[in-house]
């Protein structure tokens, strides 16, 4: 569904991604693990068109999208749940969700959007309880649910999530991750960036390890969980980079 | 065990993406971690990020068996030694060749071997008897583990006489025999001699060497079984690198584990399908000892077109021989360079020699003819025997195979050899 080839993204003189190639197949959950500053978020922003890559290809359903702007990327079926949630605090929960469907408002009948809204409420009953409440008054976990719900309202084929468990209590982390698995079971393809490597690897099908802007390892998650380097660098205590 | 059979049916585009990703991450690791490869790449002015397509593969330098020896003991590992959980050793001339495996590597190889056996038709219901020479100990180990992973009952080749092996085959109702083609033919003949019909036997998985179609059909008819061929190089990955599907039209290569190329052994240039050349492989799923463009020494060709079984993995034809100066006997590869080194060790010099490969009752036997000269002479028969024994012992120690030495007159040797150093009888 998504194929990235030789993607290089720079911020001025700083090379954030170096020749990155990866793919996400339809119906898969693929996770991307790596330390802070490895380039995980840059990769997602490059796919969304927020950051323009310096070179390389991004193919979505066979079409190159590396030169497209974010609205067109969203229209083609990719949604991003950004790090830090980025919801609209002064708006209500429901308004936030409706904004997620902004591009669909003119094109699709109201019922279709309404139907998806109900689906988000089914997935996160807490949001339904608080639909009239201002988003700024929600707890961290609820805000994350809202961010995911809002991304879902764009009716994506591929949902990308950047650190969805960041700063959440362990119990809420499980709720969020379970929701991701549930969305995947319904057929949504997912690319997940997660600091919590153990959790990410336990729910994804495949994974890539990104280190200083380069992919150094990939495979099925069972293999990555058994991999000595992954265990040392991301699952154990004695943190070390592969290339140290 | 979860198998990755789906990958064998990837589209051409899917394969390109898969290969590019794995090649790039392998190079990223190897360049950082293996000084030998870093140096080779630096000499060519190449960095991992210069490899942006599969066509760039040919810009990378080759790795040879000599490199593996020169970098003994530690210099080819891409992981810290403490991550290595198994170490295999192979004969080398100046130094042994070693190959390490991480726990993940072992898992991957077991999965590959299990896929190979499954494709051959082995299931958890089978009783698998392995009959291979001790020189193929690594094959034995990996085939055993692969078959065990499938849940089959495995009978490894513990030292037994042939008639006892047949008896075990009968009493334990062996259904699958894993052996070399020549040993299978030998067993078939022994069965006739002993008046034994292997009723339970249904399949022979033949590894280590190729087999002519006519001989194959005869063997199948004689034993009333199906046969499948498998190909592998233990220094590189192991058994299961190539295997026949139900169509039995060449070996499907496990392209999810390595990138195969066929090159002109003289120029190093890639050859198109159909043309015979040397198989070169780049490992994609190996952590401990990755190999970049490793020259296998095996001569073969790519088969054109897709297989009717639907697998989209590249296929090669039979191994048509070895590059100059190497020979494969009963699945064990022997180079003349190595024989010369052993001769030098045994006699202080390399006399004129001829390696003869003879067949007796289907089993290949090795005979090394040496031209008698002043340094290589003993007045008594006993002395000559002792002289021969020095080399014979060294050879068997190294390869796990016997090789008889015969001292002959130089003129006679030249006459028989006609300029060759290897002669198949």
Architecture overview:
The complex is a heterodimer of chains A (244) and B (425). The longest helix of chain A has 16 residues, at 170-185. Chain A contains 10 helices and 10 strands. The two termini of chain A are 34 Å apart. The mean pLDDT of chain A is 89. Chain A is an alpha/beta fold and 244 residues long. In chain A, the strands form 2 sheets. Chain A has a 6-stranded mixed sheet with strand order 6-7-8-3-9-10, sandwiched between helices. In chain A, strands 2-1-4-5 form a 4-stranded antiparallel sheet, with helices on one face. Chain A has helices at 40-48, 70-76, 93-100, 110-123, 125-129, 140-152, 170-185, 197-203, 221-226, 228-235; strands at 2-11, 14-24, 29-33, 55-60, 63-64, 78-81, 158-162, 189-193, 206-211, 214-220. In chain A, helix 7 links the parallel strand 7 and strand 8. Chain B has 425 residues and is an alpha/beta fold. Chain B folds into 2 domains: 1-323, ANL, N-terminal domain (Rossmann fold), CATH 3.40.50.12780; 327-424, GMP Synthetase, Chain A, domain 3. An 8-stranded mixed sheet of chain B has the order 4-3-5-6-7-8-9-13. A 4-stranded antiparallel sheet of chain B has the order 10-11-12-14. In chain B, strand 3, helix 5 (137-150) and strand 4 form a beta-alpha-beta unit. In chain B, helix 9 (336-347) packs across helix 10. At the A-B interface, strand 1, strand 2, strand 10 and helix 9 of A face helix 1 and helix 4 of B.
How far is it from the N-terminal to the C-terminal residue of chain A, by CA? Answer: 34 Å
Rounded radius of gyration of chain A (Å):
18 Å
CA-CA gap between termini of chain B: 45 Å
Strands across the major sheet of chain A, in which order? 6-7-8-3-9-10
Strand-helix topology:
The complex is a heterodimer of chains A (244) and B (425).
Chain A lengths: L1 E10 L2 E11 L4 E5 L6 H9 L6 E6 L2 E2 L5 H7 L1 E4 L11 H8 L9 H14 L1 H5 L10 H13 L5 E5 L7 H16 L3 E5 L3 H7 L2 E6 L2 E7 H6 L1 H8 L9
Parallel strand pairs in A: 3-8, 3-9, 6-7, 7-8
Antiparallel strand pairs in A: 1-2, 1-4, 4-5, 9-10
Helix pairs in contact in A: 3-6
Chain B lengths: L11 H22 L1 H9 L21 H6 L13 E7 L6 E6 H18 L6 E5 L5 H14 L2 E3 L6 H10 L4 E4 L1 H14 L8 E5 L5 H11 L2 E8 L4 E6 L7 E3 L4 E6 L13 E7 L10 E7 L14 E2 L4 E2 L3 E4 L2 E4 H12 L5 E8 L2 E9 L9 H19 L3 E6 L1 H8 L4 E3 L1
Helix pairs in contact in B: 1-2, 4-5, 7-8, 9-10
